[in-house]
Every structure is written in structure tokens, then in C-alpha cells.
Amino acid sequence: MSLDFYQKLPEITNFKDISNPALYREVPNDWFLVMTDVINSTIAIEAGRYKDVNVAGALAAIALANQYQSLEHPFLFGGDGITFLVPPDVALSCRSILADTRLQSKLLYDLDLRVAIVPVKEVYDKGKNLFLGKFIVSERYSQAAMMGDGFAYAEALLKDPTEKWLLPQDEPIKAKADFTGFTCRWRDIPSPNGETISLIVSFEKADDQRLVDNTLAKIEEILGTQEYYHPLREETLESEQDKNLLSKEATAQTRSRSGFRHTLYLFKMKFEMFISNLAMRFKLPIKAMTYKLKDLKKYNVVSSDFRKYDGSLKMVVSATRDQRERLIAMLEILKKNTGIRYGYHISNRALLTCILHTGSTREVHFVDAADGGYAYAAKMLKSQN
């Protein structure tokens, strides 16, 4: 499989180097750029369905991970959708997986998922560029980093209902999506500093390293170190107890909203959570697969995707009200002086959606601000066009 290209990329070990072009490589022109998003996600969020939107946005990640039999492939989660880069030897089979994921999103969560599969060569033929990097978040999670104006071009194609690269509604489903490893068993996490902010900063030139570095430095000057503005803390992570919210995982795993299998899976979840909570509380040396149950909270914190780069800077941060006001004032000055655009959404808690690859030690914990997060931040950013 030509995933060797991704696996052999230089490793970015410090987020401060995330915009260094020397650590990126041009995406092979026989690959495909895949994008998904939840249609009318803001309407669903306004109806209080922000968790459903995150679930529907995340399902494609575990479906393709199970197709690859690995989480070591390039993708980025955006709250209501995901961007993937796919090598040619899996591009055909992933069409069916994505078509079934789209179908299940509608049947199980009543949300419409839009999917575009764009040849990288098509992007290059339009004079755009695509570069890929790899940020080492933890020993269990390597996060794709993306640079170039080709991603914004592909997103515009995704939003165009007449675009030929959209996955047809009648795409045959020859293989079902496997959602094994998708899990969401944590309550919304209260902000350690009062507010949880989903922030997107877009740059006029996606490869303007100096401006990206300067913006990130100013953000950290206001918010402090990563340890301070990280939206998760082990001491604030608590297991979800609401049956209706736990049901979202059971629905994905059993591909049904109710029935015997759904009820049985819920019982299994509660038993597993009971054992995990005992292990975490009393530091018991119990293992499940490759996980030490007493360290589950630590895994969630260190392998979370609370910050990322896809030509835009995307971060979920914890801040005080004063810090947030100073942050927005700083971004407004940068907007006037440099042409950046930004969007943000404020909540008092974070939302965690987890992907565990059961056949390996790989995992990722998607982070967004509750009640709208990145979807609302993106809406605000687009209003500045």
C-alpha cells in the first residue's frame, strides 16, 4: 500500500514547527483528496443536536481506519466532517465505505452527510498545491498536518451540489462500513479556566510561515503554556451516565436505534464502564487490549486533537474571560494589519469523541467546544469573506 509516503514523512514533534514547509512533502498526484461534512450542521446544532453532529462527522474516520486496518493514515477532524488523503490502491474500495457511512448517518442520526472524492491531479491541474506533514501528538497518535491552497479549493467543490466529484447518491454499497472502535463515554468536560473556545484562524497565504508562527506565538503569549490552555484535565474527565447520550455509541455499533442488540450493547458498555471506573478510582492493574484501565483519563488527554493545522490554525482552548477578550482583540488587530480572518465559538465545556483502533495501540480523541464549536466558528469566519 502506498501509505509508505505518509509513514515516511518527517516527524513534527513540536507544534511550534507546524508551519515549517521543510517538514512537509507534496502529496503524490495519483492520490485522492476526500472530504465529508454534515449538511445544515448549524441548523442541527441550533436544535441542540451538537453531539449528533460530532458523531456523524467522526464516523468516517473509524470506518476508513478499519478499512485500512490502521489509524496511521492522514486525516483531520473538523467538528462536522473530516478531510482525508487517500492513496490510489484504496480509493475505489473507500467509495463504498463512505457511501455506507453516509447512509448510516441518515438512518441512525437523521443527518445528511456530503462526500467529495477529488483526484489530487485535478487540484494540481487547477494550479493549486497540496502538502502533507505529520505531527506526533503522542506515542499513540500521529496527526496529519496539511498545507496549501488546494484544500480550500476542494472544500469549495464539496459545497457545490452540482460538482462532479461529489459521491453520487446512487453509489453502490458493496461493502459495509465497520464502526468498531468508535466510542463516546465521557461527559462534556468543564473548562479548567471558565471558558472553552473553538478557534479558527485563516491566513491569506496558507504558506505564510512567518505570519502563522507570529499568530501562534501571540496566542500563547495571552493564553500561557499548553498545559494551561489545554481544554482537558484528568481531574475533570468523568464517565457519562445519561443513557440517551451513551446510546449514541450503541446506535453506531449495532447500526440500530433500539432493539435487543442495542439494549445488549448498552448493558455491555455499562459493565465495561463500571470496571474502568473501579480501575481508575483505585488504580487497579487491569488491562483491556493494550490499555491500562487506570490510565484511561491520561490516554484521553495526551492523545487529544485539541490543536491542528490544515493551512488554517484550529484550536480548542481553555481560557478565562479576560484572556478571551484579549485574544479576540489581538486577532482583530492582526485582521486589520495582515488580512487574516478568524472565527470562534465560546462554551463552558468541551466535547470528546473517541476513536480507538482495536487492532493496534493507535487512538485519537476528537475535541470540540460544546454547543456548536468549530461549526459555529467556521460560520463566523465565512461571514468575513
Description:
The protein has one domain (4-235, 299-382). Helix content is 41%, strand content 23%. It contains 13 helices and 18 strands. It has helices at 4-7, 41-46, 50-68, 88-109, 120-125, 150-159, 209-223, 226-229, 243-254, 260-282, 296-302, 321-338, 373-382, and strands at 11-12, 25-26, 32-38, 75-77, 82-86, 113-119, 131-138, 141-147, 182-183, 189-190, 195-202, 287-288, 291-292, 307-309, 312-319, 341-347, 349-356, 363-369. The strands form five sheets. Strands 1, 2, 7 and 8 form a four-stranded mixed sheet that branches. A four-stranded antiparallel sheet has the order 4-5-3-6, with helices on both faces. A hairpin with a 6-residue loop joins strand 17 (349-356) and strand 18 (363-369). Helix 9 (243-254) crosses helix 10 (260-282). The mean pLDDT is 95.
Gross morphology is globular
**Which spans of ≥5 residues are poorly predicted at pLDDT below 50?**
none
Helical residues, percent: 40-55%
Largest sheet: 4 strands, mixed
So how many helices?
13
Number of domains: 1
Q: How much of the polypeptide forms β-strand, as a percent range?
A: 15-25%
What's the alpha carbon Rg, rounded to whole Å? 20 Å
Q: Please tally the β strands and state the result.
A: 18
Distance between the termini: 40 Å
Strand-pairing-aware structural class: alpha+beta
Overall pLDDT level = 95
Describe this protein with a few key phrases.
single chain, 385 residues, alpha+beta, 13 helices, 41% helix
What is this structure, in a nutshell?
With 385 residues, this protein is an alpha+beta fold. It contains 13 helices and 18 strands.
